[in-house]
C-alpha cells in the first residue's frame, strides 16, 4: 500500500488526463484519500505473468494482475487432468506424473477469501457484507452507465473488505508497472538489496513515451516492442506496423495522449511444435507459453496473515498470435512438467 499512497497519484496524473476510464478509477481513489478511508483488512488475489526470454533464458514479467484473476479453477483442473493422463499413460510415454507440480490455486484462493471473511467477522455479528470480490469492473464495458460507477463508489465507501480495493486495482495498471521499473523506485518500497536485485532481474525493458530515444527506436524497429494502453483483459496491445503508425500519429499530435500508453520490450520465448486441443479437435502448431504465478495476500493492520504463492497457470498459444488470453480465444490451458534439463515434452495441451 505504500506504493499507492506515495506514487499512484503522481504517476497517473498525466495518464488521467487522456484516459477517461483510468481517470474515473483515480477519481474514486482520490475520494477515498480525501476522507482518509480506513481499510484495516487488505485482501489481494494476484497473478504475476512471465515469459521465458530465449536470449537470456530468464523469466521476464509480462504484467501483474490485481483484479478478477482468471483460471485458478480451470488452471488447477487442467494440471490434475494432465497428471491423471500421465498416471495412466506415463509409462508408455516415458513421463513421470510426479513431475507435474501440484496446483492448488482454486482451493488456496478460496482459503484466502474464507480467512478474510473470518478476520472481518471476528468482532462483528456477521450480518453485513464482509467481502466484496470483483469478477468484473476492470474494463470500460463493465460500466455502461453512471449506475455502475455509483455502485463501484458505494462498494469502495463501505466497510467491507474489497478484493481488490480501488488502490489495489490501480496497482495493476501498466503505468504503475512501468514506474516501478524506473531506477531507484523499488528502493523506496523494499529494504533488502537482494530482493530488489531479484525483482529487477524479472523486469523487461519498460518505458514511458516521454522517452524520445526509445520512441524513435520503436518507430525504426517496431517488431522489438509492444505498445500497451491502460487496459486489462487481452486484445488491447499494439504490435508491428500498427505500433509504428500509432507512435507516429501520437508524436504528430504532440499532446498528452502519449501518457495513455507505455512501451515494453518484446519478449521472444522459444517456440516448440505442440499438439493443441480446442473444441474437441486436435491440431499441431508452433507454440509459446506464458507462466502465471498466483499469489494471495491478507493483512489486518500491521499483521500479515497470508503472503503466499498459490499455484500456477500455464497458457500456451500459437507463436504467430500476439495476444495471450484463453477466454479471448488466443491461448489454451496447459501444465508445467519439471525436467532436469531443457527438452521438448510431447504432451497434449487443452
Ligand atoms: P492484458 O492486461 O490485456 O492481459 P498483457 O500485458 O498481459 O495485457 O498482454 C496480453 C498478451 O500479450 C500477453 O498474455 C502476452 O501473450 C502478450 N504480451 C504482452 N506483453 C508482451 C511482451 N512484452 N512480449 C511479448 N508478448 C507480450
Ligand atoms: Mg495479461
From TrEMBL:
It catalyses: gamma-L-glutamyl-L-cysteine + glycine + ATP = glutathione + ADP + phosphate + H(+). Keywords: ATP-binding, Glutathione biosynthesis, Ligase, Magnesium, Metal-binding, Nucleotide-binding. Coiled coil: none annotated. GO terms for cellular component: cytosol. Belongs to the eukaryotic GSH synthase family. Residues 124-171 form the Glutathione synthase substrate-binding domain. The keyword Magnesium applies. It holds the Pfam family GSH_synthase. This is Glutathione synthetase. One of its GO terms (molecular function) is glutathione synthase activity. Binds 1 Mg(2+) ion per subunit. Its cofactor is Mg(2+). The gene is ga22604. Pathway: Sulfur metabolism; glutathione biosynthesis; glutathione from L-cysteine and L-glutamate: step 2/2. It comes from Eleusine coracana subsp. coracana. Substrate binds at residues 47, 315. Its EC number is 6.3.2.3.
Amino acid at each position: 500500500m505504500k506504493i499507492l499512497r506515495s506514487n499512484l497519484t503522481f504517476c497517473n496524473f498525466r495518464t488521467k488526463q487522456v484516459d477517461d476510464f483510468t481517470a474515473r478509477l483515480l477519481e474514486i481513489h482520490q475520494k477515498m484519500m480525501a476522507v482518509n478511508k480506513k481499510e484495516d483488512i487488505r485482501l489481494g488475489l494476484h497473478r504475476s505473468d512471465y515469459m521465458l526470454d530465449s536470449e537470456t533464458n530468464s523469466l521476464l514479467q509480462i504484467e501483474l494482475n490485481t483484479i478478477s484473476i482468471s483460471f485458478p479453477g480451470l488452471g488447477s483442473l487442467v494440471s490434475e487432468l494432465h497428471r491423471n493422463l500421465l498416471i495412466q499413460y506415463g509409462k508408455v510415454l516415458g513421463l513421470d506424473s510426479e513431475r507435474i507440480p501440484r496446483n492448488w490455486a482454486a482451493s488456496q484462493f478460496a482459503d484466502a477469501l474464507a480467512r478474510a471473511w473470518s478476520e472481518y467477522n471476528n468482532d462483528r455479528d456477521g450480518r453485513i457484507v464482509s467481502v466484496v470480490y470483483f469478477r468484473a469492473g476492470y474494463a470500460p464495458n463493465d460500466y455502461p452507465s453512471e449506475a455502475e460507477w455509483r455502485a463501484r463508489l458505494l462498494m469502495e465507501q463501505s466497510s467491507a473488505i474489497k478484493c481488490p480495493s480501488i488502490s489495489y486495482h490501480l496497482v495493476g495498471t501498466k503505468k504503475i508497472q512501468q514506474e516501478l521499473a524506473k531506477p531507484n523506485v523499488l528502493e523506496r518500497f523494499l529494504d533488502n538489496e537482494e530482493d530488489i536485485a531479484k525483482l529487477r532481474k524479472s523486469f523487461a525493458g519498460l518505458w514511458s513515451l516521454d522517452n524520445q530515444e526509445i520512441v524513435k527506436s520503436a518507430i525504426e524497429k517496431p517488431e522489438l516492442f509492444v505498445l500497451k494502453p491502460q487496459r486489462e483483459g487481452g486484445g488491447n496491445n499494439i504490435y508491428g506496423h500498427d505500433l509504428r503508425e500509432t507512435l507516429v500519429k501520437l508524436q504528430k499530435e504532440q499532446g498528452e495522449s502519449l501518457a495513455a500508453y507505455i512501451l515494453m520490450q518484446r519478449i521472444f520465448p522459444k517456440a516448440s511444435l505442440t499438439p493443441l486441443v480446442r473444441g474437441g479437435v486436435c491440431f499441431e502448431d508452433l507454440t509459446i507459453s506464458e507462466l502465471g504465478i498466483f499469489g494471495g495476500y491478507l493483512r489486518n493492520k500491521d499483521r500479515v496473515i497470508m503472503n503466499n504463492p498459490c499455484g500456477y497457470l500455464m497458457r500456451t498459444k500459437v507463436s504467430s498470435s500476439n495476444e495471450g488470453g484463453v477466454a479471448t480465444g488466443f491461448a489454451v490451458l496447459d501444465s508445467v512438467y519439471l525436467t532436469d534439463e531443457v527438452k521438448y515434452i510431447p504432451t497434449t495441451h487443452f
